[in-house]
Specification:
It is built from five helices and no strands. It has helices at 21-26, 31-36, 42-47, 54-59, 79-88.
């Protein structure tokens, strides 16, 4: 365990907004790799939404909202009941 915070490696949150675009641009794409890319169809273009993806990222953060969300409860069971459920793979 590191002794201080300065000894710890940077977390991925420290790199928010950082990109590898220079690395991507420097890489040459071979003819075989171009063949793997599917052709864009008119149907794909109709569904396309212009933008940089930030709006999509904001919408997909966290759990989906549902009309009737599940609620957490606490349930106390005898140890033999729990052992039986775990043995069957249900718990």
């Amino acid at each position: 365990m590191p002794g201080s915070r300065s000894d710890m490696p940077p977390s991925s949150a420290d790199k928010i907004g950082a990109t590898d675009l220079d690395k991507v641009d420097a890489r040459a794409i071979t003819a075989e790799e171009y063949e793997e890319i599917p052709e864009l169809t008119d149907a794909m273009m109709v569904r396309a939404v212009p933008g940089d993806g930030l709006e999509l990222l904001k919408r997909c953060r966290g759990q989906l909202r549902v009309d009737q969300p599940k609620r957490q409860i606490t349930l106390r069971l005898d140890a033999d009941v729990i052992d039986t459920m775990r043995a069957r793979g249900l718990g």
